[in-house]
Amino acid sequence: MEYKVGIGYDIHRLVAGRKLFLGGVEIPYPKGLLGHSDGDALMHALCDALLGALALGDIGEHFPDTDPQYKGAAGSRLLKQVKAMVDKSGYTINNVDIVIIAQEPGLTPFKQQMKENICGLLDITRERANIKAKTNEGLDAAGNKEAIATYALVSLVKGG
Known about the structure:
Elements: E1 3-16, E2 20-22, E3 25-27, E4 31-33, H1 41-53, H2 59-62, H3 75-89, E5 91-101, H4 108-122, E6 129-134, H5 140-143, E7 147-158
Parallel strand pairs: 5-6
Antiparallel strand pairs: 1-4, 1-7, 2-3, 5-7
Helix pairs in contact: 1-3, 3-4
């Protein structure tokens, strides 16, 4: 079998006056993630991981923050477009592993819904996706409640 692996990363600053979206889930919190789109760092990192596995560059090349059509765009919309690229490539998604780094808010109550959203968008079973939420023990921007960062790792398999 032929495999490809990609890693994605994204970080967005937390700001007042925006809704917080992660994994397509609106999370009650007094701040949201600043961004040209909805700022969903999880969806953005996942897009980058898939694009990386396909050797197709990064999210900024496909969905530039200078393009008005992506202003306020839901991360799920971007992920659907990247999934279509995966489908055209002849590869299928083997598995997805995601780490969210946020001091606040607590994300455990929302992880299941995030996972369901991702599995639905990527057309994969629940056994092929994992989401972990970590704090940064008060260190750096995420640990100081200034930002939320996300890492995503994906593996693709030829055919499937």
